[in-house]
Structure formats: structure tokens, C-alpha cells
Amino acid sequence: MSEQEDNQDLQYLKWQDKISKTFCHFPFTTSYIGSGGEADPCCISEHHRINDIGWFTNGYWESSGLEKLRQNLLNGKKDPGCRRCWIDESKGMMSKRILDQAKVPSANLENLTVEQFKEQVIKKPKIRWIDFQLANLCNLACRMCNPWNSSIIEEEALEHIDKFSNDKLKGKELFHKNIIKPLPRVKEVKDYWKDPEFRRQIEELLPQLDAITVSGGEPTVNKYFSEILDFCKREGIDKNMILKFTTNGMQINRKYMEKLDGFKKVEVKISMDGTGSVYEYIRWKGVWETLHENRKILEEYRSDRFKVNSDPTYQVLNILNIPNLIEYHLENDMDLANLNPVHEPEYHAISCLPKEIRELAWNKLDKCRERNKDSLHYNLKMGVNNVLKYLEADRPNEEKKYLPMFFEHTKILDQIRGQSFEKQVPELYNVLKKYDH
Ligand code: SF4
To answer: Per-residue DSSP letters for 23-61?
Structure first.
């Protein structure tokens, strides 16, 4: 990120406070569509579960629940559906609400004054950005994911229900909630994008959008994503649109890249939660060498119009590897956009780590920050500070409750997948194994 963009971030932060202490642009500009077709203002909000907010095709944008949320955020009230932001902020961290404040996805809005922003955006909410989670079709099965994010995990869970349901497991209830319980619903709604009415509404909306962002599953193996790209090209609306998508990078090739050449701007986020064997352990079926090579193909296209970066998560399994990951990016002149905490499942969140391991991770990351202080851009510095803050907090109850579940989940998957925590993540394994009672 350039210094100019850094300054833009700061500018937007000032805006936010002028509008209200809880302001967030998402309910005024964006519709997130989850992997079952449910609508929310952003990917971490929980409104479809608790408010009167409809399915995307069922009047979401005009729903009374969404209007109530808008009013709450404008009036400085912490709406309960935005729980994840309030939690991060209460821990002194930068929430998505704050970090994404600069990501109003339209170049046209960047130069507005606060008053113009109020007139043009707040008074006239309009979907300018669709953030799609395109169902669960995926070629990988990551440790922190669930049947909603990966068709391989869905199949795995169906085949091994008994292993996650053993009465002796401390994590039985959570495994049931995260892995087994969603299965019938996933089966029922995962093909939401095939509904003709949904497709009609999306085609109608596409010409008015400034941006479309897509995650999955894996977008590059999803037929509908290809169809959207082809539709935008055919209708000539790609030239007005910013396209961002997240990919695990396994299927990237030069032929696929031709679909992207007409978009006004493109940002490709590569999912990379570790280096080498840590990467392959977390992102099962992913191959580090393939990722390394395909990343180079993407980098060939890098320009002012075409951005390539990664947006890794941090979690128990990669917390000691994060410095390597940061330095891999720096050595390869690759942009690491931000670091995002895994909150759920709770047994993969770093809050369940013992103090000794958190201190080890803190020291490693702090040294990495020092070594590279002149190379880290503003957002990444904030991201690293967030990780350090998160590591400082003592949460003995979370360790007691969730660390045993981490070991259980890890062993079950090792058995099913033929992987090895000991061999593939040895640095963490060696310091953590004594806590496995
Ligand atoms: S969860 Fe956070 S980022 Fe999402 S809509 Fe609510 S305040 Fe905004």
C-alpha cells in the first residue's frame, strides 16, 4: 500500500468519527451473500440470524431489520448483529468496521466531503458492492473451515460422522455444531446460485455495481463465477467495475487470466496461511510448490490496474509461522494486505493457547516487526499490532475449555487425512505437546 493510500485510510478514519462512533458504511453500500444465499451487510456480521433481514432475493435491501441496523450505527448504538466488530474493538484491536472504512468500493466516493458522503450515500443507500461467498464448491479442505466453506469437508464429515460424535470427546458439542449439524442445511441451500430468480436479480444489479468481490469455496472452480465474468465482458460492464476475488491459487493459469483483462481494476487475494509444510497442513490438498509457481503467474499481470496480495488468517496452527510468512512476502516482493484472526472455530483461535506459547509467538513476531520495520506498510503494521495485542491477553478459561478440543480435532483430521501435526508443524508441536493431557 502506498503512502497516499495510507493517508486515505487515516482520512476515512476521521470521517467515521464525524458521522458517529459506531458508523460503518457496509449497510449503506454493500450486500454480502453467504454460502447459502443469505444476505448480510458484510462477511462477519450476523444479522440474518438475529434481525428481520430477508434472504437476498426476498427484499433484503429494503428490509426493516437492515433499516434498524442503519439507524443504530448512525446513532452510535452497538447493534448486536455486529458483535464481532465490538469484540475486536473492546480488545483494543482494529475491527473490520475500522479497517475496511477505506474500502468504500468506488473511486467516485473517495473525494467526497463528509457532507457530500451523508447526502449521496447515507441518505440514499444503494448496493454498490456485492460480496459473494459462492457456495462451498472447493478443491481444498482447510483445518479452520467447515462444510459451509468446502465441499471436501462436507463429504469428509458425511463419511466420518462417527469420529466427530464420540461421546468421550470434550469437543463433541462444538464439533456437532460446526461440522455435523450444518450438513442437511448445506445440502439444501448450497446450490442457491442456480435459482433462476436469484440469477435474474443479480444480472439486473450487475450494471449498477462499482465492485464485486468473490470468495468461496474456491471461485476458480465454480461455474457461476465464470459465467459472471463472461456476462460482465459480454455486456461491456467489466470496464466500469472493480473485481476482487480470493483464490487458493491451485487452478490459476494464463487462459483463466484472459477473463479478467477488461475489468477496471482487479485485485486477486491469494489464500496463504503459512509457508511450506505448515501451509500444506492447514490447507489440506494444497501444494506449496504449486502455489509458489502460480503466484508468479499472477505477479506477471501486476500493474496499477491489477493488484495481487494475500490476506492470511492467524490461528493456533500458524502462529509461530507468521514471521516466516511475512518474510516470504517481503522476499518475493509480494503484498500482504492484512492479518485476520480466526475467531471460530474457537479451538483454532489463538486465545486458547497457553501463556508460554503466546509469549514465544509474541517475541518471534516482535523481532520480525523490528527486523522489517522499514518494509511493513501501514495496514500490515496495524495487523501485526493486532496480533501482538491478541497474544498479550490472558484468557485462562478459553485455554482450559478449547485447547483440549484443538488436540482432539487435530488428531481426528490427522487420522482421516493421513497428515501429521508432529511432522508438518514441528515447531509448534514440540512446544505444545506437553499441554495435551
Ligand atoms: S460487523 Fe462490523 S464491518 Fe460488518 S456491518 Fe457490522 S460494524 Fe460493519
So the answer is: --SHHHHEEEE-TTSBEESSTT--HHHHSS--BGGGT-T
